[in-house]
Amino acid sequence: MPRHTIGPLAKEIDRDLRAIRQVLRRPLEADVARGGLPGPQQSAMRVLVASDGLSLKDLSRELGLAHSTVSGIVDRLEKRGLVKRQANETDLRLTRIVVTDQVRDYVRDTLPALEVHPLAVALRAATSAEREEVLQGVRVLRRLLERRGPPT
Questions:
Q1: What is the rounded distance in angstroms from the CA atom of residue 59 to the CA atom of residue 53?
Q2: DSSP assignment letter at 149
């Protein structure tokens, strides 16, 4: 393929990959929307789920928000049963904010199914030859991206 046609091809592949990512995120986004959490609360939950619990100060720093703002966010999440404050066993003045068991169970049990559901549905509808073609194409693209050298 001539060098000058690589740019448009890369843009087309990028557009297709973006569209695929959007389709794959839909079930998760719909589930999150049903939960009715405003954006700042969603951001706090993302940070807390990825951590083993954080102090209010650390959570504020991670979110880039004022301590008082994050305190209010945590209060609202706590009222909904999504997070809890845990006192430090050796220094009761220190607390960590952690997600509840209900949230951990959701992340462990429900979330993975939501993330692969559209892909599983599409692959079930494909012929075995189409499934193999998709798998090989994705593997080739990944291999090419991982071995990519410096830009030319």
A1: 9
A2: -
Dump pLDDT digits (tens) for 2-25: 556 889 999 999 999 999 989 888
Residue boundaries of the structural domains of the chain: 3-146
Residue pLDDT, tens place only, 46-91: 899 889 899 999 999 999 999 999 999 999 999 999 999 998 888 7
CB atoms under 10 Å from CB of 103, counted, come to 18
Looking at CATH, the fold of the domain delimited by 3-146 is given as Arc Repressor Mutant, subunit A (1.10.10)
Note the pTM of the prediction, 2 decimals. 0.60
Neighbours of 20 (CB within 10 A): 13
CA atoms of 117 and 64, how far apart (whole Å): 33
